[in-house]
């Protein structure tokens, strides 16, 4: 690689049908297919240059390169050997708080490395590679809605864009905490697999995926939100019912926001929750109703950090 400073920018995505469990840890093959919405508000920009050893700079600070090094070695096996790299990332996402920072990070890294190698791979091919670093990264190559097919092996587990009707969907992001979560997603998934309800959740999730795709095709935001909330709460119920070390990512503030969302729906406001591996709550709504929801949250919880995100773009290079 030369010393050019091409950058790749990938946005985070929020799974409306969740990925929560691995059937092959080495290949990051999930137990369920998943469906996501890419967000405009949160993203990672990454560049690479030749170096003496693999190293990592995150937000202008040297960072632990262990995970990056392992991922780059995987790329070397898949794509052919290349020299050590200095990876420089700007992450515009709260890290490890359930806002998919690793998704945008590994998508951007995969994209920029492949481009610097002069290889012309499709986003679907890139999604297979990025999946090895972070499963949800497979979906961050695509704008708007994307589906990650669980597959049965490396070749069949990939993401692709979902052709969708245009709809005025918005997410109100309530950032309960920026702190790094105590239980990683990987650890959380392993515990959730021990829930006696896990197999039932897999069956229900597969049906919800079909229903969600239909709701998106019909631009039915109310149905999109209803399915997403049911899927997310089902995922978090697995954590509580794990037979090995049950746990929750929810805080008191998370619970309070969920209660407020129920109150909003009783008032006729379109508002549904989705929550990933962390305490932060994303509220699915319409662009028109987003400001109303922000005001309700801020009145009830004045110190809460709230932002409004909309549908975001796929990966880009400059």
Task: Summarize it.
The chain is of the alpha+beta class and 318 residues long. It has eight helices and 14 strands. It folds into two domains: 158 residues, Ribosomal Protein S5, domain 2, CATH 3.30.230.10; 142 residues, GHMP kinase, C-terminal domain (Alpha-Beta Plaits), CATH 3.30.70.890.
Explain this structure.
The mean pLDDT is 94. Helix 2 packs across helix 3 (123-131). Helix content is 36%, strand content 25%. Strands 1, 4, 5, 6, 7, 8, 9 and 14 form an eight-stranded mixed beta sheet that branches. The protein has helices at 66-79, 101-116, 123-131, 185-192, 198-217, 221-240, 252-266, 290-300, and strands spanning 7-17, 22-24, 29-30, 34-50, 55-58, 61-63, 85-92, 145-148, 159-161, 169-175, 272-274, 281-286, 305-310, 316-317. It has two domains: 7-164, Ribosomal Protein S5, domain 2; 169-310, Alpha-Beta Plaits, CATH 3.30.70. It is α+β, with helices and mostly antiparallel strands. Its EC number is 4.1.1.33. Belongs to the diphosphomevalonate decarboxylase family.
What is the fold-level CATH name, i.e. the topology of the largest domain?
Ribosomal Protein S5, domain 2
The share of residues in extended strands comes to 15-25%
Approximately how much helix is present in the residues? 25-40%
Low-confidence stretches: none
CATH class of the largest domain: Alpha Beta
CATH-level-2 architecture of the largest domain: 2-Layer Sandwich
Number of DSSP helices? Answer: 8
pLDDT averaged residue by residue: 94
Rg (CA only):
19 Å
Encode the helix/strand succession as letters. EEEEEEHEHHEEEHHHHEEHEE
Calculate the terminal CA-CA distance, rounded to whole Å: 17 Å
Largest beta-sheet characterization? 8 strands, mixed
The figure for the number of domains is: 2
Task: Give the overall shape.
Answer: globular
- Helix vs. strand class: alpha+beta
Keywords: ATP-binding, Lipid biosynthesis, Lipid metabolism, Lyase, Nucleotide-binding
GO molecular function, one term: diphosphomevalonate decarboxylase activity
Enzyme class: lyase
Protein name: diphosphomevalonate decarboxylase
